[in-house]
Every structure is written in C-alpha cells, then in structure tokens.
Amino acid sequence: MRFFRLPVKDPRTVARDIPGICDLLFPQLLPAIVSHLNREAQPIPGCTYLEESLIAKMTTNAAMLFEVAYVRAEQILEDKTEDWNQCLNLALNRQSKYFDADLPEKLTEYDLSIASKTASNLVKSIRFIESKSQNIKAIQSPVIPGYQWISQGHGDFSVGTTLIEVKCTSRNFSSSDYRQILIYWLLSFSSSIEGGLEEWKSGILLNPRLNKYIEINFDELMKIAGAGRSKIEILELFSSLVGDYGYKLGNQS
C-alpha cells in the first residue's frame, strides 16, 4: 500500500469525522460512562464561568469568537502586545481548515468582553496546570504524531506528558471529545514504541467558558473504554482498521 497516494487526514478528523474507527477501538465509551466521567469535572481556582446573559449578546459566530479568545490567550502566554486584528486573522485561518469561516467586520463591546474573559480563564487555567506539574512550562500546539495515511497534527497545549484539549461549548464534554484525546494518546503510544515522541500519560479536557476541567489517566480510561483489551491489542486493532480504511480509499481513487 502506497499511503502517500491516499487522501491525507489529520488526527482530529480521524477522531471526530470518520465513523466506525473509534467505535470499534473504544466500544465501552458509552453515554453512561461519559456522564460518569463528566461528574469528576472541577473548576479552576480564580476563574469564573461566562454567564449566559453575556453570551446571549454575542454578535459573532461562537466558534469564531472562541477561536479569537484562544489566540488572545496565546498572545498573553507569550507576553505579546494585545492585537485583536491579529487575533481575528489567525482565528479565521485556523477555522477555515475545518469550516466555511467568515471574518466579522468588527468585534462589538460584548464580543470583546466575552473573548477577553475566555482568554483570561484559559491563561489562568494553563498556569494552574503548570503549578500542579512542578511548574513545567506549557507547550503550545504540541505535535500529534501521524500514522500511515494519518498526517501529523497538533493539539492545543501540553504540560510534560499531559495533553490539554480546549473546548469552549455550552455543554458537558462529549464522547467525541474523549475519543479525540484517546486517538491522540494512541498515536503517541504508537510513536513511542517506534522510538519517536513520548507517550502521553494523561489528558485534560478544559472548558474556559464554563470553567471546568477533567484530568484523565490514559491507562485507566483505555481500560474502561477498550473493553478489556491491552494497549498493545488496541494498537494492533487500530493498525488493522487504519490499513483496511486506507485500502478502501486506495480502491476508490
């Protein structure tokens, strides 16, 4: 199989948009399990959730505005000067990779307030996680290894061997969110066996909008979601599924 001829998919797309792969890998990641995991979510000290009365005054697309907030948080973490125009342009570039995104003509006072508060919560959250990890410095956009026709991608943040994925929705963390970080972990595990990147040991789902986070040990989550399979067995199944999917794509091209 010559994988470079296949349509390349990034890890995020594999985790969230290709049906079947994650269901076979993690068959026990059922709604009841997800609800149980979500009950372990905790607030970040010093942060407050964004009230719905403020969110209701938003005039910009929610996904775009929270991407703007994410970029603003990066500016703060890098000690850069506040530049909302740059935030808008970078947010548009990132959103355009996955959606048909439009750049708003301007951010209203309420939009800026929402973005500023979200960015502040995100920065405080990252610094809190750093403090819990012996002040190991957070890395922005950590590499997510590729595999066969799956391209290399990037996560949101990492601190040591902890991967951090940021979600700015109005709901609890979903099964898709857990599948995403599990696929990221699996790709890191595969890479570590081959002498590449270090395996992620834990993952954090973080929502600065609702001010909640949950930290998960990947070995423990894998035992729950993987129906009793070992890490090696899950990796072997993953390799088989990816190979089969690649074969089907190759025959269609």
UniProtKB/TrEMBL annotation:
This is Restriction endonuclease. The lineage of its organism: Bacteria, Pseudomonadati, Pseudomonadota, Gammaproteobacteria, Alteromonadales. It comes from the Bacteria.
